[in-house]
Design brief:
The structure is a single chain. By secondary structure, the chain is mainly α. The protein has one domain: Sodium/glucose cotransporter (Up-down Bundle), CATH 1.20.1730. The protein has 20 helices and no strands. α4 crosses α15 and α8 packs antiparallel against α15. The radius of gyration is 22 Å and the shape is globular.
């Protein structure tokens, strides 16, 4: 217990010190929100990776999808690495940095408003982020409860309060740079921790070969596949269709999530983007690949997990059950790992929410003449508000039978990425995108996930979110061909000058 407490105290001390150290970079709005757009490849890559993979992935998704799809779950991890990390950096990275810099956009709604000359689009995007990001923020806390109880016997309520206060302190003090530096530290903990956990878990089940042999003898319980032998060690698992839905949602979703794309706003050069892409991908291979690889053995813990009264597995109990009876030191490392994953994501979410609400809603609409000092003060105040609200929602969810928040993890990704992915991607590469096509994409994605939720999920939230993203890639070009285009001369000038920004970034790199 002494070692576990010592690890926690050291982690908290380093986190707060980084917040104080980063104060000098948070003196203006651009510095507080984007680190002055001078963030290097290592900080950017780890900030991206740690924002991507929270405790929801380690505890929730790895256990749930590992239970359902077995070793085929590794495809999700590979998709996260190749599509959600490598490809997105090369496709969006440089163009996002160049065009947002030229438009002086600090948030995704600000990009939509400036790119399409539409204040209404800017407000609509800010509202979507505000509505769907807070419940997602609340869900980040959920992965901590069981592991903290296992390691320290600490009530879940105290875990939430500690995590919320600690995140508030360093984000309010140092803004983007405090989160980025802490993300680097927390990312290193995650890399080391996930490898150690996999080794320990496989050792518990007799090593890799024995674990695979035991898993191959588990009969499938997937509908229509109950007689399938070795389903959980097969290459595509017992349910390829739904596995593909998870892969699309979790991999393609990063292309439209504001807290992810914003990392490209802040990076300093083309060279940094090229190096950051490799670092981010390797991080994803280890963390996402490792989490889903571990989850693939979920069925081996069938005798120790919790079940509902109806006999259904409680998925959040799967990974903690696999980690039971591990050495205290390793258990302490796991807790710090999960806390790191949760805090890195939470800090990115609250910074995105508070900056979006301040710069895209409050400034110019409720307070017309808002100077830089007041903007930073408002962002800091809203960071505290967002953390408190998400904390309250998480406490309400934990102390009630409601499972709404857990489902909103998928709903949030579906609504936001479904709304933003296609307009943002096409907006960077294609001059012909129209305002009407962006509205069509926003309305379709939000309507699809909300109607699906209201009807009691005739389609799973994951598949609905994946469909919203893929449909947007068709809706935007289709509607653009039949609706009035923006001023051609202005759009042409915008693209030309953005390309010059790309050239300037290459010169800066040299």
């Amino acid at each position: 217990m002494f070692l576990k407490i010592l690890m926690m105290v050291a982690f908290i001390a380093v986190t707060i010190y980084i917040g104080f150290h980063a104060r000098k970079s948070a003196r203006d709005v651009d510095g507080f929100v984007l680190g002055g757009r001078k963030v290097g490849p290592w900080l950017s890559a780890f900030a991206y990776g740690t924002t991507y993979f929270s405790a929801v992935v380690f505890v929730g998704y790895a256990g749930q999808f590992g239970w359902k799809y077995g070793m085929a779950t590794i495809w999700i991890g590979l998709g996260n690495a190749l599509i959600g990390s490598l490809l997105v950096w090369y496709v969006l990275g440089a163009r996002t940095r160049a065009m947002t810099h030229h438009l002086r956009a600090q948030t995704m709604p600000e990009f939509f408003g400036a790119r399409f000359s539409s204040p209404a689009l800017r407000i609509a995007a800010a509202v979507i982020i505000f509505i769907f990001l807070i419940p997602y923020t609340a869900s980040v806390y959920n992965g901590l409860s069981r592991l903290f109880d296992m390691a320290f016997g600490v009530p879940y309520e105290w875990c939430i309060v500690v995590m919320a206060v600690l995140t508030c302190v360093y984000v309010v003090l140092g803004g983007y740079m405090a989160t980025a530096i802490n993300d680097l530290v927390q990312g290193c903990i995650m890399l080391f921790g996930i490898v150690a956990v996999i080794v320990a878990a496989l050792t518990k089940y007799g090593g890799f070969t024995q674990a695979m042999l035991t898993l191959s003898q588990v009969p499938s319980d997937a509908p229509g596949m109950t007689e399938m032998g070795g389903a959980y060690v097969s290459i595509f698992g017992p349910d390829l269709f739904n596995l593909a839905g998870v892969l699309v949602l979790t991999s393609l979703g990063t292309w439209g999530m504001p807290q992810m794309v914003q990392k490209f706003y802040a990076i300093k050069s083309i060279d940094a983007i090229k190096r950051g892409a490799i670092i981010s991908t390797l991080f994803a291979v280890v963390v996402a690949g490792g989490c889903y690889f571990l989850g693939g053995f979920s069925r081996l813990a069938a005798g120790s997990i919790e079940y509902t009264a109806a006999g259904a597995p409680v998925y959040d109990s799967v990974i903690p059950s696999m980690l039971m009876d591990m050495p205290d030191l390793l258990m302490g490392l796991v807790v710090v790992l999960v806390l790191s994953a949760s805090m890195s994501t939470l800090s990115a979410l609250v910074l995105t929410s508070s900056s979006t609400l301040t710069l895209d809603v409050v400034k110019g609409h409720f307070i017309r003449d808002m100077n830089a000092k007041n903007q930073i003060t408002m962002i800091r105040l809203l960071v505290v508000v967002f953390v408190l609200v998400s904390m309250v929602i998480a406490l309400i969810q934990y102390n009630s039978p409601m499972t709404f928040i857990a489902q909103l993890m998928s709903i949030s990704w579906g609504a936001m990425a479904g709304s933003f992915l296609a307009p943002f991607l096409y907006g960077l590469y294609w001059q012909r995108v129209t305002v009407a096509s962006v509205w069509a994409c926003f309305i379709f994605a939000v309507s699809l996930v909300c109607v699906n939720m209201a009807l009691g999920y005739p389609m799973s939230p994951i598949n609905a979110g994946a469909l919203a993203m893929l449909a947007g890639l068709v809706i935007v070009p289709l509607v653009s061909w039949f609706t009035p285009r923006l001023d051609a001369e202005r759009t042409s000038t915008l693209f030309k000058e953005s390309y010059l920004n790309l050239h300037d970034m290459e010169i800066d790199a040299d």
